Amino acid sequence: MMYNWTGSIFGPQHTPFDNQLYQLRIYCGDRYPVEEPKVQFVTRITMPGVDAQTGEVSFKDIDGLERWSRKYGIAHVLRCLYNKMLRRESRVRQIPGPDFPLPK
Questions:
Q1: At a CB cut-off of 8 Å and minimum separation 6, what does 7 contact?
Q2: Are strands 21-27 and 38-41 parallel, antiparallel or unpaired?
Q3: HSE (CB half, 13 Å, CA atoms) of 92?
Q4: Which member of 12, 28, 40, 85 has the greatest number of CB atoms within 10 A?
Q5: Could you give the angle at the alpha carbon of 95 between the alpha carbons of 21 and 93, nearest 5°?
Q6: In this predicted structure, what is the pLDDT of residue 104?
Q7: How far is CA 68 from the centre of its chain?
Q8: Which of the two residues, 93 and 39, has the higher pLDDT score?
Q9: Residue 78 burial class via C-beta count within 10 angstroms: exposed 0-12, middle 13-18, buried 19 and up
Q10: Within 10 Å of residue 30's Cβ, how many Cβ atoms?
Q11: SS3 of 4, please?
Q12: CA 17 to CA 91: how far, in whole Å?
């Protein structure tokens, strides 16, 4: 089984994320799909449900991911993050300053 994946999300049009390509790291542990994968934005982003320092995604704060199910796949995770970008609370985005750390 592949454990490490790279994902991409094109920012939705007419949102603060428009014309941006967001890259993500996805790690599926030994117990995936029983347990949720770990997802981290590599591209800088300020959005509810994403840790501003590390880029790590908190599934409990993303609609459709708050109760993980083994029937979900990586495509579902990416769709839910895209849908979060469309939500009103995500539309007010702060542009990270030059000291904003990129995840390692």
A1: 23, 24, 25, 26, 39, 74, 77, 78
A2: antiparallel
A3: 2
A4: 85
A5: 85
A6: 55
A7: 15
A8: 39
A9: middle
A10: 8
A11: strand
A12: 8
As given in the structure block, the two tokens for residue 96 are 């990270």
DSSP H helix total and E strand total for the chain: 1, 3
> Which residue type sits at 29?
G
pLDDT in tens, 30-86: 999 999 999 999 999 999 999 999 999 999 999 999 999 999 999 999 999 999 999
Read off the tokens for 54.
Answer: 């590390």
- The pair of three-digit structure tokens given for residue 63, joined into one six-digit string: 């609609």
Residue 60 tokens, joined: 């409990």
Query: What residue type is assigned to position 81 of the chain?
Result: L
Please say if the pLDDT value at position 10 is more than 90.
yes
One-letter identity of residue 55 = G
H or E element in which residue 81 lies: helix 74-86
